[in-house]
Predict the 3D structure of the following.
Amino acid sequence: MKKYGLIGFPLGHSFSKTFFNQKFQSEKIDAEYVNFEIEHVRDLKQIIRENPDLCGLNVTIPHKITVMPLLDSISDNAKNIGAVNVIKFRKGSFGKLKLEGHNSDIIGFKQSLEPMLNESHRKALILGTGGASKAIYHGLKQLGIEAVFVSRTKKKECFTYPEITEEMMDEFTVIVNTTPVGMYPHVDEYPDIPYEYLTVNHILYDLIYNPDETLFMKKGKAQGATVKNGLEMLLLQAFVSWEIWNR
């Protein structure tokens, strides 16, 4: 039996395990998908040693960036993004295991967001600066949308939340939350943006999918904004992961 899995911490919110195991069962694929909850990415080596039947992994927060030095090769797409969320296991010369890093975030995000866009959506705020945010930045760029990052702390080429003005909110009509703020069980939390300046022209896209509707989304909807969670993006990413592992 082949084995696939997910590394990250924490993994109580994980969608991938249920999705892939249902896929394997319904399509009669002799495989299983396992969660490997590791706080430190260095523990990946131990997982590989203890699971010789592993054929591929997904990577989620907080390891999308820190896993990169542990890999033998990284796709151009993942290099440009600066983060990896899919690892393909390949046998190299003399049967030595090679780990290839890929990124499916950008494909899932683009395919999910594109149908929502119109001519008024030319600039975006990306909330957060972690591994997922970099894929979102490149995805928006490929869709012709100029994007800037928003961080809790002052960083180069980033706005902080208190710096977001009414004029900025009017100009940046796509807002993407790439942070874990509002994710279960912390459902009473939300990114600190001035929601009172949102309009029907805004799109609020939350990469979180548990809960189905975050407080970020609820507060946007109350102002007439179009909102969407990250479930469809996750489904699309899963399809791409399976293609990467089996090509």
